[in-house]
């Protein structure tokens, strides 16, 4: 956890992004989910508290309208919870804390001053103000909360318990119509923050908060676990104890009140959420399960688990998700940088995305081809979660597993990426900080979108007079290949569908042949017909298998390469960007020189020196840019060569595999028909 | 188009003939030692008419020559069938089902499209499509010729039908039979007759049936065959569409594309063979069963007539009026019914035997073909894999 806190990403951008996201990101399939998840990752985690967590999310995410809507519907639930007592609150709080941890973290971390929340002004301001004063209050308040019966008061107390001024918060809360709802989440949020923040002094608050932000899922555990380390020393012992007890109580109480909460949570979910969200929720739920075991040392860990278990009942399948891939790469054994020869870690899907984010951030500007992670599929995931039909969801999980495995293989087979500490960490570390920015709609996602958009614009505007024909040709090649692959992919997919259809029809046919056989009065013929039915049955199975092979071996390969080609193109773009920077630098230098000449002419020696300095500076920069560009160009060239080699190898391997699968099918077919032949001959 | 089609057919003629030689009498069990040997060595497609060349070899002296051929159209076949059905003497026989009308619509349409798209397509695409179309056309053509041939062969192998005057005329008359197509009124009349028949069938079904098990079996079979036909047709469709999928796969790697293309062609062969052997078999027997059912219907009708005449006789006796006439009528009906029953039974038994034999033959052939295709697929794949692995 501590480590995670150190590496926490800059919270700031996210805030903005989150706010913007909903509007901007339309492209990703996951959008719906992402919208919520981006901001609410943490909140989603605790299954039970989902209801509360969601509102939080909404609030923060920017659209204030949402909070209102949800809250209204949920107010009843909240009240009930409140009534149920401190324990219930504790629950709510715990999740909330998690939720809070993310955003509040951001808020506080950046804006210690206050800038933090533009959108979230209510929340952010209040907390900020509170910090200074609260500490003392928080403890009493919490205690009071536990004992207090008054709903609102309780809520407030919990929320503000950490030190927020009741009045202010209330005001804020109430200002927003759904006040009640808001309060809870906010309260929890604040609570979480206060814990971190106060104990450590504001300066420390950032790291702590960041950590929490990173690990929304782990938030409950993390918060608690971390707090002991960071907070305890801080001498704010009082605060912590309060928090921890609350957590504990909540865990204890979970059993009792969990049902109610669940009901509410679910109800609210359905009201406010669409399927994607459910999806997310479930996933998040899953997530907690992972982290929990690790930090089991902490007292708080026990709390999350029970909740999760409850939700897990629903989502046993998702467990598979966590399993993901135990990559046992032969390479690892030889590399000294890994601690052990064989590693097994559990990762969530979003961790993979997170890995990709990190890698692409680090390496793609240098012209490396960073293998893209598999895309999310809300539809598939939702099916897995909602639909219980094992077949399709199994298929989905398997498909994703295979895709992730291939992704990892690609990453580790890349010499430079393999050296990346993040990769190592991904493969090695028991527990990974929650990848925050992976959601398409998260702040980072949003930022990415903007970047992409600007890239696209600049790409259009940049007219690069290509000095190297090789690049031009390659780029064209890549583009046409991309198109061809897409076409082919579509065809293979339809082939798969047709084959599936064929297998279904074969099954129908087999059935009717069997019926025919049963009504046939010639015994030998009847037997032959039923044999034929059997053969057709097997052939149906064969078709089905072959369809799966078509898909897994062939179609997935194509899909992978379509994505990879995108990455290749991105690295060409990077090169172009580097070029553009260089050109800009040159232009600037030119301008500076002109200015100098003017000054010279105007005979203004005092400014002349400055101008000369600037020219010197720019000269340095330009040469730097030029070197960069050359470096990027060289890397791109190397990378593309490597990519092509790999591509050839991959295609060869896969196509051979595919042909072998076809061969196998044919063999089976021969076997079946040969077995049938004597039967047919036996008809007298 | 009209110009192009015959070309297509001509081109495939040798193939057609050779295929037919091996396919001949696939679906029916025919005694080739009958004194009458019939085949359709050639057919020509002109617009929407198909002209079959019918070649006959015979030892029967009722024919003027031992070896002759005539040209006939589909309508002539229908005429022949209808006259047979209407012949009273054949009521007790299963009249071979009339072949279905040749359906060249879909290939023709495609051909049309091809002609239109000629300008927009690349040459490669065009030839590819054309080849495919020709293959499809040929398949339809083959099937059509085959069913017509089988129809004639069944007639010729039947002791009664082979001596039928109309049949002989059909085979021998070297001029155009100039059978006029059914006009609308007749079509409607036929339709009406069918309606009446089916209604009558329902009525008659109440009549006690002596050989009920026969009829029951038939109805069963009809049901199942209907289903099967459905399923088979679907399977065919799927296989074919799946082939067309493969066709579209033009990969960047030419070798793979070539392989896929070959595979696709083979698969297409599998599908068309399957269709020929299995679907057609089922289809044919569906029609045959319909014919058998018609026979049963005629028999049941006779039975009902007989019972009616019995009743009439009773009435006449009561009134002691026209007793003689009624008795005579009753006797006639009885005779007719007995005759029908007898020949019907014989026909049905032979039908059953024929069916079993035909099924056996087709199933064996299909299995063999499947194996053959699978094997050639395999060797193709093998070769390709080896090639890939070597470089």
UniProtKB/TrEMBL annotation, chain A:
Q: Name one GO molecular function term.
A: phosphatidylinositol binding
Q: Where is the composition biased (Low complexity)?
A: 295-304
Positions with biased composition (Basic and acidic residues): 276-287
Whether Oxidoreductase counts among this entry's keywords is no
Main localisation: other
Which keywords does UniProt give here? Acetylation, Cell projection, Endosome, Lipid-binding, Membrane, Phosphoprotein, Protein transport, Transport
Q: Give the start-end ranges of region Disordered.
A: 1-224, 242-325
Pfam entry (one): Vps5
Q: Where is the composition biased (Acidic residues)?
A: 14-33, 95-108
What is the protein's known function?
A: Involved in several stages of intracellular trafficking. Interacts with membranes containing phosphatidylinositol 3-phosphate (PtdIns(3P)) or phosphatidylinositol 3,5-bisphosphate (PtdIns(3,5)P2). Acts in part as component of the retromer membrane-deforming SNX-BAR subcomplex. The SNX-BAR retromer mediates retrograde transport of cargo proteins from endosomes to the trans-Golgi network (TGN) and is involved in endosome-to-plasma membrane transport for cargo protein recycling.
The entry's family comment says:
Belongs to the sorting nexin family.
The name under which this protein is listed is Sorting nexin-2
Protein's organism: Electrophorus electricus (Electric eel)
Automatic annotation (TrEMBL), chain B:
Q: Which SUPFAM superfamilies match?
A: PX domain
Write the record's keywords in alphabetical order, separated by commas. Answer: Protein transport, Transport
GO annotations under biological process? pinocytosis; protein transport; retrograde transport, endosome to Golgi
Top-level taxon of the source organism: Eukaryota
- Is Transport one of the keywords UniProt gives this record? yes
Which InterPro entries does the record cross-reference, listed alphabetically? Answer: AH/BAR_dom_sf, PX_dom, PX_dom_sf, SNX5/SNX6/SNX32, Vps5_C
Which Pfam families does this UniProt record tie to the protein?
PX (PF00787), Vps5 (PF09325)
Q: What does this protein do?
A: Involved in several stages of intracellular trafficking.
Q: What family is it from?
A: Belongs to the sorting nexin family.
| Name of the protein described by the UniProt record | Sorting nexin
């Amino acid at each position: 956890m501590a480590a995670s806190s150190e590496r926490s990403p800059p919270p700031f951008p996210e805030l903005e992004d989150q706010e913007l996201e909903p509007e901007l990101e339309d492209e990703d399939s996951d959008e719906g989910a992402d919208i919520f998840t981006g901001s609410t990752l943490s909140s989603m985690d605790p299954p039970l508290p989902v209801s509360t967590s969601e509102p939080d999310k909404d609030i923060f995410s920017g659209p204030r309208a949402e909070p209102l809507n949800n809250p209204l519907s949920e107010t009843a639930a909240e009240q009930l919870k409140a009534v149920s007592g401190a324990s219930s609150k504790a629950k709510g709080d715990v999740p909330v804390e998690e939720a809070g941890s993310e955003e509040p973290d951001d808020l506080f971390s950046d804006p210690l001053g206050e800038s933090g929340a533009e959108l979230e002004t209510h929340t952010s301001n209040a907390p900020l103000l509170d910090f200074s004063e609260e500490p003392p209050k928080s403890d009493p308040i919490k205690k009071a909360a536990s004992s207090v019966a008054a709903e609102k008061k309780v809520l407030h107390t919990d929320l503000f318990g950490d030190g927020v001024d009741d009045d202010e918060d209330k005001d804020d809360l109430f200002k927003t119509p759904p006040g009640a709802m808001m309060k809870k989440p906010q309260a929890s949020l604040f609570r979480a923050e206060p814990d971190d923040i106060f104990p450590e002094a504001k300066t420390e608050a950032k790291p702590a908060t960041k950590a929490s932000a990173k690990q929304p899922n782990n938030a409950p555990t993390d918060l608690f676990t971390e707090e002991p380390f960071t907070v305890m020393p801080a001498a704010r012992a009082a605060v912590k104890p309060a928090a921890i007890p609350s957590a504990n109580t909540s865990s204890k109480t979970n059993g009792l009140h969990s049902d109610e909460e669940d009901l509410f949570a679910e109800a609210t979910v359905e009201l406010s959420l669409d399927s994607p969200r459910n999806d997310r929720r479930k996933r998040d739920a899953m997530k907690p399960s992972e982290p929990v075991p690790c930090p089991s040392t902490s007292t708080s860990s026990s709390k999350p688990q029970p909740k999760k278990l409850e939700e897990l009942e629903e989502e046993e399948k998702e467990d598979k998700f966590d399993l993901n891939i135990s990559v046992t790469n032969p390479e690892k054994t030889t590399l000294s940088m890994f601690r052990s020869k064989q590693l097994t870690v559990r990762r969530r899907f979003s961790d993979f995305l997170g890995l990709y984010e990190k890698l692409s951030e680090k390496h793609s500007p240098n012209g490396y081809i960073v293998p893209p992670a598999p895309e999310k599929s809300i539809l598939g995931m939702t099916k897995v979660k909602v639909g219980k039909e094992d077949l399709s969801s199994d298929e989905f999980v398997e498909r994703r597993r295979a895709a992730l495995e291939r992704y990892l293989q690609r990453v580790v087979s890349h010499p430079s990426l393999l050296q990346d500490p993040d990769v190592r960490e991904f493969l090695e570390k028991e527990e990974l900080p929650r990848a925050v920015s992976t959601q398409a709609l998260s702040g980072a996602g949003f930022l990415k979108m903007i970047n992409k958009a600007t890239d696209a614009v600049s790409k259009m505007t940049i007219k690069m007079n290509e000095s190297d024909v090789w690049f031009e040709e390659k780029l064209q090649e890549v583009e046409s290949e991309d198109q061809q692959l897409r076409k082919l992919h579509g065809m293979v997919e339809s082939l798969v569908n047709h084959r599936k259809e064929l297998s279904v029809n074969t099954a129908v046919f087999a059935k009717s042949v069997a019926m025919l056989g049963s009504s046939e009065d010639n015994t030998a013929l009847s037997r032959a017909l039923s044999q034929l039915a059997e053969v057709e049955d097997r052939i149906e199975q064969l078709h089905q298998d072959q369809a799966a092979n078509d898909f897994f071996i062939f179609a997935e390969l194509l899909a992978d390469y379509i994505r990879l080609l995108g990455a290749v193109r991105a690295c060409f773009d990077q090169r172009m960007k580097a070029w553009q920077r260089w050109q800009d630098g040159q232009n600037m230098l030119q301008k500076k020189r002109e200015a100098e000449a003017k000054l010279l002419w105007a005979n203004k020696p005092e400014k002349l020196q400055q101008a000369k300095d600037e020219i010197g500076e720019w000269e340095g920069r330009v040469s730097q840019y030029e070197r960069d560009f050359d470096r990027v160009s060289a890397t791109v060239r190397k990378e593309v060569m490597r990519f092509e080699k790999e591509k050839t190898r991959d295609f060869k391997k896969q196509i051979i595999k595919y042909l072998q699968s076809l061969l196998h099918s044919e063999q089976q077919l021969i076997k079946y028909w040969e077995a049938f032949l004597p039967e047919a001959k036996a008809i007298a | 188009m009209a110009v192009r089609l015959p070309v297509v057919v001509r081109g495939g003629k040798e193939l057609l003939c050779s295929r037919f030689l091996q396919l001949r009498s696939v679906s029916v069990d025919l005694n080739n030692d009958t004194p009458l040997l019939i085949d359709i060595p050639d057919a020509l497609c002109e617009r929407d008419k198909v002209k079959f060349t019918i070649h006959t070899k015979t030892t029967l002296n009722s024919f003027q020559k031992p070896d002759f051929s005539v040209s006939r159209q589909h309508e002539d076949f229908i005429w022949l069938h209808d006259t047979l059905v209407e012949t009273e003497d054949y009521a007790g026989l299963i009249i071979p089902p009339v072949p279905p009308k040749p359906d060249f619509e879909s290939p023709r349409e495609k051909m049309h499209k091809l002609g239109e798209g000629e300008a927009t397509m690349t040459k490669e695409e065009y030839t590819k499509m054309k080849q495919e179309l020709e293959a499809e056309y040929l398949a339809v053509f083959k099937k059509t010729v085959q069913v017509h041939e089988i129809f004639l062969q069944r007639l010729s192998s039947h002791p009664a039908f082979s001596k039928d005057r109309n049949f002989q005329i059909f085979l021998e008359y070297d001029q155009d039979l100039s059978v006029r197509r059914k006009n609308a009124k007749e079509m409607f009349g036929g339709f009406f007759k069918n309606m009446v028949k089916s209604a009558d069938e329902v009525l008659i079904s109440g009549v006690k049936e002596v050989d009920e098990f026969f009829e029951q079996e038939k109805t069963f079979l009809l049901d199942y065959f209907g289903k099967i036909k459905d399923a088979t047709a679907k399977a065919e469709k799927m296989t074919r569409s799946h082939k067309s999928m493969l066709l579209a796969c033009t990969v960047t790697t030419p070798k793979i594309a070539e392989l896929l293309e070959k595979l696709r062609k083979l698969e297409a062969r599998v599908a068309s063979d399957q269709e020929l052997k299995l679907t057609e078999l089922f289809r044919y027997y569906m029609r045959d069963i319909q014919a058998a059912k018609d026979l049963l219907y005629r028999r049941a009708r006779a039975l009902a007539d007989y019972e009616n005449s019995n009743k009439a006789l009773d009435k006449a006796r009561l009134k002691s009026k026209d007793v003689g006439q009624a008795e005579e009528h009753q006797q006639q009906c009885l005779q007719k019914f007995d005759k029908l029953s007898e020949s019907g039974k014989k026909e049905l038994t032979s039908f059953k035997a024929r069916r079993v034999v035909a099924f056996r033959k087709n199933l064996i052939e299909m299995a063999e073909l499947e194996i053959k295709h699978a094997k050639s697929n395999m060797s193709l794949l093998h070769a390709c894999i080896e090639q890939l692995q070597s470089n």
